[in-house]
Amino acid sequence: MYYYYSRISTVTQNTSRQVANFKSHGEFKAENLFVDKVQGNVPFLERPEASKLFDKVTSGNKERVTIVVDSIDRLGRNLIDILNTIERFTANGINLKSLKEGFETLIDGKENPMAKIVISVMGSIAEMERNRIKERTAEGIKIAQAQGKFKGRKLGSVQSNARLLERHPNIVKKLNKGLTVREVSEIVGKSTTTVMKVKKVLELA
Q1: Which of 39, 75, 148, 180 is the most buried (most CB within 10 A)?
Q2: At a CB cut-off of 8 Å and minimum separation 6, what does 153 contact?
Q3: Is residue 175 within 8 Å of residue 195, measured between CB atoms?
Q4: How many domains does the structure of the chain reveal?
């Protein structure tokens, strides 16, 4: 089954060029098209239509799914977010096909060797960016501590693990699909602290 994802940056733009490319793919169906009108720096799963698409293709149907994009930058402008999205697709058995770059991440349900090379290079670059972010964050915390503005986390109330999972079924569902703590927090509207608590309980199960 093929699904198509398009992103345009503003409401004044249109998707005609991307849709034309999708139609040349030969199996295009309008009902399988998802379009977001957001800036590329918004993480993929924090976009309304992208979130709907991900939920649809991970709803339990066992058929093979391919998400087609016009180009890889439709997933985002941030390399880390793009890489995380691709890894999440792969973890859920979803093939990503980029028309411009001309590659698919899965072939017959198995990782495409050429795509793995591309993703590996992307991963190395993204890791350097992660390290830079960590360094900047640590520096920011030290400055805040020196100014008396950072006091660490407050201790939360104690509740049973089972009760915690019962109270947050949406968080459990999103985490089980491989979303990050930050992504789940943005989507369900809960704090990252709450999401992390649920994640830790799931890891112990």
Answers
A1: 75
A2: 193
A3: yes
A4: 2
Measured distance CA(133)–CA(184) in Å, rounded: 20
Residue in the structure block whose two tokens are 């201790």? 155
User: Does position 157 have pLDDT exceeding 50, yes or no?
Assistant: no
CA 141 to chain centre: 27
pLDDT at 151: 55
Q: Is residue 167 part of a domain?
A: yes
Say yes or no: 46 and 113 in one domain.
yes
Domain range for residue 15?
A: 2-118
Residue positions annotated with a catalytic role: 9
pLDDT tens-digit series, residues 60-90:
767 889 999 998 888 887 777 888 888 889 8
| Residue 6: pLDDT band with limits 50, 70, 90 | very high
Torsion of Cα atoms, 40 then 41 then 46 then 47, to 10° = -20
The pTM of this model reads 0.63
Position 54 in a domain? yes
